[in-house]
Amino acid sequence: MVVLACKKDQPIPMAFDDFSFVAPSSWKKFEAQGYDSKVGGITNGKDTLRYDMGMYSYSFTKETNATHHRTETVQNGYKTLTVWPKKTGQGLIGIYIKVDDLRKLSI
């Protein structure tokens, strides 16, 4: 589960087909067209959190040890990879979760 919070906004749950977020009430849910996966996200108009749930979801292979911190753990029984840039503002922050052989989630 991903939890976002802010001082003025009360957190609210945002349910998707296979998972949910808790986010500030000012954030809005959106869905996009996916070809082999479910895609969409939440946004407040300035920042956006996107997801891709499917067999071929991006596993952050371009975010190498040279450019990003990479931490592999097991969360709630799922293999999880977290990446974030070594230099602030130069790269992306992401989470990849292998749910099973057919479903992977990248955020």
Widest sheet, order of strands: 4-5-6-10-9-8-7
> What is the arithmetic mean of pLDDT?
88
Shape: globular
- Count of helices? 0
Cα separation of the termini: 11 Å
- Rg result: 14 Å
Low-pLDDT sequence parts = none
The overall strand count is: 10
Account of the protein in words:
It is a single chain. This protein is globular. Helices cover 0% and strands 51% of the residues. The protein is an all-beta fold and 107 residues long. A hairpin with a 5-residue loop joins strand 9 (94-98) and strand 10. The strands form two sheets. Strands 4-5-6-10-9-8-7 form a seven-stranded antiparallel sheet, with no helix packed on it. It has a three-stranded mixed sheet with strand order 1-3-2, with no helix packed on it. The protein starts with a strand and ends with a strand.
What is this structure's SSE topology?
Layout: E1 2-3, E2 11-15, E3 20-24, E4 28-32, E5 37-43, E6 48-54, E7 68-75, E8 78-85, E9 94-98, E10 104-106
Parallel strand pairs: 1-3
Antiparallel strand pairs: 2-3, 4-5, 5-6, 6-10, 7-8, 8-9, 9-10
Q: Gist?
A:
Strands 4-5-6-10-9-8-7 form a 7-stranded antiparallel β-sheet, with no helix packed on it. Strands 1-3-2 form a 3-stranded mixed β-sheet, with no helix packed on it. The model has no long low-confidence stretch (mean pLDDT 88). With 107 residues, the protein is mainly β.
Brief descriptors of the model:
107 residues; globular; 0% helix; 7-stranded antiparallel β-sheet; 3-stranded mixed β-sheet
